[in-house]
Amino acid sequence: MGKEKVAIIGSGNWGSAIAKLAGNNVKKHSDVFDDSRVPIWVFEEEYEGKKLTEIINTEHENKKYLPDVKLSENVVAIPDLVEAVKGATALVFVMPHQFLSKCLDQLEGKVEKGAKAITLIKGVGVDGPDIHVFADVIQDRLGISCSALSGANIANEVAIDRFSETTVGYRNEREGQLWQRLFQTPNFKVQLIDDVAGVSLCGALKNIVAVAAGFIDGLEYGNNSKAAIMRIGLLEMKHFCQEFFNDVKEESFLQESAGVADVITSCLGGRNRKCAEAFVKQKKPFDELERDMLNGQKLQGIHTAKDVHIFLKAREKLGAYPLFDKVYQISWEGLPVEKLTEGL
Ligand SMILES: NC(=O)C1=CN([C@@H]2O[C@H](COP(=O)(O)OP(=O)(O)OC[C@H]3O[C@@H](n4cnc5c(N)ncnc54)[C@H](O)[C@@H]3O)[C@@H](O)[C@H]2O)C=CC1
Ligand SMILES: O=C(CO)COP(=O)(O)O
């Protein structure tokens, strides 16, 4: 069997951090991976008067989304999505969830037969009463096996090699071990679990909880309130997964980085938390805050709150998830933020 050829689809803050790890690890495991080239698809834009792909390919740094972190020289930025995945056998999906569907439209019928994929995207696909994790969406649309990676992984910290853990929910153990080889470093520990849905849903739903934590910070309610939001949020996450997905594992919530640890880090230090605090203090809408505070990076939590609201409404289950619903109502329907804790 030939060596695995990796392609990374997405080059934002997390996409660039993961490209750094993958670029180095393919060299470390050159018995398994083709280490000559790791293509990364870049949604082309100008940054400081130059094309972002040109900056990445000459300076080996994504100056817009992950400044001051050097990427290995085998990481090659490519603006054409289909060209970026040409010949790839190991596809890493890592773009903000709102852009996945358009990418899959372009990729359908274009990926290598027998390729495998992993998604690092945090979000869910909702269509009225139907809900899907993105690993399933990718698998169905492209006809390839797709695992999921999620964890307490603030990208800027992983990128500078601070000790962190993550969880891979695998389709089969062999694929889990392949992804572990691609991403694990002495300071980035990759745990494996046979729970694609649980890992994916933890990553999506914790973003709603992080928005709630940001509201608490905006209200200056203090640490007890924030701890309560984390606890209630984690329970709603677990309840939601167990109610609507058959095969999720309890360990994914309580023992894995994807569950409890990601709730904690996101409620302390994530972008969703930061913008939600500003929403309360500055009284500006989220799209304006995203534009002013994130320099092109994207919020996921408020969109996931809306997706989950649409789904729960269609299933007539809104009352069963009061925290998720309060986040939706405050973010999208003008409910006063002081109502967040009412009835929890
Ligand atoms: N940043 C972080 O700390 C972490 C992020 N994640 C997840 O990883 C996923 C990707 O996040 P990031 O890499 O941080 O992205 P990001 O939040 O930095 O978003 C910017 C990216 O979106 C792209 N983009 C903008 N407009 C686009 C369009 N119209 N079509 C396609 N792409 C477009 C930009 O080119 C850029 O690559 C998200 O689901 C996020 O929740 C997961 C763990 C950590
Ligand atoms: O997923 C993350 C940390 O694990 C990042 O969360 P934010 O998108 O809120 O920054």
From TrEMBL:
PROSITE patterns: NAD_G3PDH (PS00957). Residues 5-174 form the Glycerol-3-phosphate dehydrogenase NAD-dependent N-terminal domain. Its EC number is 1.1.1.8. It catalyses: sn-glycerol 3-phosphate + NAD(+) = dihydroxyacetone phosphate + NADH + H(+). NAD(+) binds at G10, S11, G12, N13, W14, G15, F43, F99, A155, R271, K298, Q300. Gene3D superfamilies: N-(1-d-carboxylethyl)-l-norvaline Dehydrogenase, domain 2 (1.10.1040.10), NAD(P)-binding Rossmann-like Domain (3.40.50.720). InterPro entries: 6-PGluconate_DH-like_C_sf (IPR008927), 6PGD_dom2 (IPR013328), G3P_DH_NAD-dep (IPR006168), G3P_DH_NAD-dep_C (IPR006109), G3P_DH_NAD-dep_euk (IPR017751), G3P_DH_NAD-dep_N (IPR011128), NAD(P)-bd_dom_sf (IPR036291). GO terms for biological process: carbohydrate metabolic process; glycerol-3-phosphate catabolic process. Belongs to the NAD-dependent glycerol-3-phosphate dehydrogenase family. PANTHER family: GLYCEROL-3-PHOSPHATE DEHYDROGENASE (PTHR11728), GLYCEROL-3-PHOSPHATE DEHYDROGENASE [NAD(+)]-RELATED (PTHR11728:SF8). This is Glycerol-3-phosphate dehydrogenase [NAD(+)]. It comes from Kwoniella dejecticola CBS 10117.
